[in-house]
Amino acid sequence: NAGVMQNPRHLVRRRGQEARLRCSPMKGHSHVYWYRQLPEEGLKFMVYLQKENIIDESGMPKERFSAEFPKEGPSILRIQQVVRGDSAAYFCASSRWTVPDEKLFFGSGTQLSVL
Amino acid sequence: SQQGEEDPQALSIQEGENATMNCSYKTSINNLQWYRQNSGRGLVHLILIRSNEREKHSGRLRVTLDTSKKSSSLLITASRAADTASYFCVNNNDMRFGAGTRLTVKP
User: Fold this and answer.
1) Are A36 and A43 in contact (CB under 8 A)?
2) CA of B15 to nearest chain A CA: how many angstroms apart?
3) pLDDT for res B86
4) Cβ–Cβ gap B43/A104 under 8 Å
5) How far apart are CA B36 and CA B41, in angstroms?
6) Averaged pLDDT score across all residues of chain A
7) I want to staple B98 with a disulfide (CB 3.0 to 4.6 A). Which of A89, B4, B54, B89 is the partner?
8) Segment B33-78, tens digit of pLDDT
């Protein structure tokens, strides 16, 4: 049973380009969370999605960032026109559902570097 | 703002000593979870404590919960160098993480 898969592991973009980060949740999981982490800091919540629905995007910047979790395929975090401040590690996590006892399973993250 | 504020921010101990980390949260909880992160990797779930529980054990881990003070503590007994990592708590109601406690266990 494969864990949460994130790709690419490392992504280098120049300022102004687009970055697409992918997250395949664990089999049977229909809930995905995206987090962003700067060095030596904690994880900052970005967005919570269920299949085909955005449930909570209160942590997402209003511009340039978007996320989706289609019926088929991985969840995508998209950053348009990247700037140097977008450089960070982006982690996704999945769970089966949102009952109180659920725990999150994390991927290994995507390290985004903006030149 | 982030829920789940851990304290201290950093902790350095010798192998064999116990490590205690604290967590405070702002809103009500259904349960509270602790996670561990090795450098550069994703978080790994350690232990979950429900709001109606006061203490829980798992191997060398002991978690306490005080809902009146909105706080929890994680105790790692007989620490090992391999316990070196960052530790985070999270309220299951909002899944927001704090800054974590960076634990260093010196051999």
Assistant:
1) yes
2) 23
3) 95
4) yes
5) 10
6) 93
7) B4
8) 999 999 878 999 999 999 999 999 999 999 999 999 999 999 999 9
